[in-house]
Amino acid sequence: MLAPDDALARVVxxxxxxxxxxxxxxxxxxxxxxxxxxxxxxxFAVSTAADPDGFLQDLRLELNGLMAAAPPVRETTLLMAAAxxxxxxxxxxxxxxxxxxxxxxxxxxxxQLASFHPDYQFADAPANAITNxxxxxxxxxxxxxxxxxxxxxxxxxxxxxxxxxCNMTTLERLGxxxxxxxxxxxxxxxxxxxxxxxxxxxxxxx
Length: 206
Known about the structure:
Layout: H1 7-25, H2 33-38, E1 42-47, H3 52-68, E2 76-81, H4 88-104, E3 111-116, E4 141-146, H5 147-156, H6 163-181
Parallel strand pairs: 1-2
Antiparallel strand pairs: 2-4, 3-4
Helix pairs in contact: 3-4
C-alpha cells in the first residue's frame, strides 16, 4: 500500500531527505545525486505494506509511475518500506523478487534497482564495519533509476569505477562517531506486523 501525503509519509520522507542531504550528498557518496536533488527530481514514495508481497506490488506501481513520468519531472524514485522487511536478510532475499519483477515487466535494461537498509551488510564485512554505512539508510529502501541516466552520468564522470573505494575511505575516516554526528535517524516506530493498513501509501514529491 502506498502512503498518501499524510503525516507518516511526510515524516519518512523528511528522514530520508536528511539522510540524502547529509550522507549521500554531504559526504559525496554518490557524485550524481546532487544535481537531481537540487532540481527536485527525486520522488520519495512510502509503502506501508505489512509484508513483502504488498511491498512488491508497491514496487510495481512505482516502476510504472517512473516510466510514465518525464525525466525532468521525476528522474528517480526512492521507495521506502515503513512496515516490513526490517530484517536485513529478509530484505536481501526480497531483492531477488524485485529483480525478477524488473525482468517480468520487460523493464530490465531500462530501469535498475539499488538497495539501502538500516542494517545493510556487505558480504565480506562484519556487521559493525563502518563501511557498511555507505548503503545504510533510515528505512529499507529501493532506489529506482533510469538506466540511460546512469549511463550518461558514468560517461560524464571519468573515475566512476573508483567511487566505491573512495566511499570506503570516506567512511573509515569519518568513523562511527562522525556518522552519529550527522543526526541520521528513523523518527517513526517500526509498525507491528499486520498493522500496515493504519496508514495508507502514495508518496510525496519534494
